[in-house]
């Protein structure tokens, strides 16, 4: 039986933890908490900043009454390199050898400075399995990959993942400070995909658009299997900064206005919507390019639905904005509703897209 694991999502502005319990086919939220992060967070090189982060996290875990020591971490998307590539059908041993060359082509850092992992997502277009779990090992490098069911065609989709060793070491050090046992460290987009899997597992093709604090990620999913991953250095922080500069207000006030008014054209003569529109239009541009590329490679197949995720997906009017600009159905990705999860506090239900990462982490050993 797999160990009970709770998710710990350390973002640039907030920290979240969650523990999910499965009984039969039913999922229940056993514990959840959120806390503001420290100013410099996990990316700081100073030990004093890591200690401050540990103190804040310890208090949050205590308030959540979490007793489980096994933890699954998510990495900031800006710190991880993820790529889905097509490879000839190979044995695990052959694939492991071939991927060393492939990783040199796709990873923009020397391989001795990163920890890498890979997972077979599917061996044929007809496979209905989402494949194995993709995540970086917390300890020694794993090279065995994960076998996924498929029809045995001549090609297979493989996801390669890499993260700087110095970043991994910080998570391991933080775990020591908190007396936790890190079971996995994975990119945010993998966690979000797992959190929303029931929404994207039918025969249609979907796009998950996760708008994080500093990075937005595009994930195309076909029959539940990840086909494409793309990240861009734009997110909620850039939106807040644009509002702050345009309106001449500080970041704290800009953040409040962003959450309260979003793209509302009636508030402040529409100035807030005008300030954040260029950021969203830039994201739309990358989304359209990714959709077009997918159509060209998949017999003109269209994306049937865009699922929004992340705290910024809760901005008033943002779903209508993407619907109008993409001419595609756009919905909010609700991890709690996706699994018909019980015991979810009512006040968190409307905030569900901002909990997709941490709930996805908590689901890691339950699916």
Structure description:
By secondary structure, the chain is of the alpha/beta class. It folds into 2 domains: 6-76 and 166-195 and 335-362, ATPase, nucleotide binding domain (Nucleotidyltransferase, domain 5, 2-Layer Sandwich), CATH 3.30.420.40; 201-332, ATPase, nucleotide binding domain (Nucleotidyltransferase, domain 5), CATH 3.30.420. The protein has 11 helices and 13 strands. The strands form 3 sheets. The chain has a 5-stranded mixed beta sheet. Strands 11-10-9-12-13 form a 5-stranded mixed beta sheet, sandwiched between helices. Strands 5-7-6 form a 3-stranded antiparallel beta sheet.
Strand content: 25-35%
Q: What would you call the structural class? A: alpha/beta
Q: What level of helicity do the residues show?
A: 25-40%
The N- and C-terminal alpha carbons lie at a distance of 12 Å
Overall geometry comes to globular
What's the CATH H-level superfamily name of the largest domain? ATPase, nucleotide binding domain
Largest sheet: 5 strands, mixed
> How many domain units?
2
Strand order of the largest sheet: 3-2-1-4-8
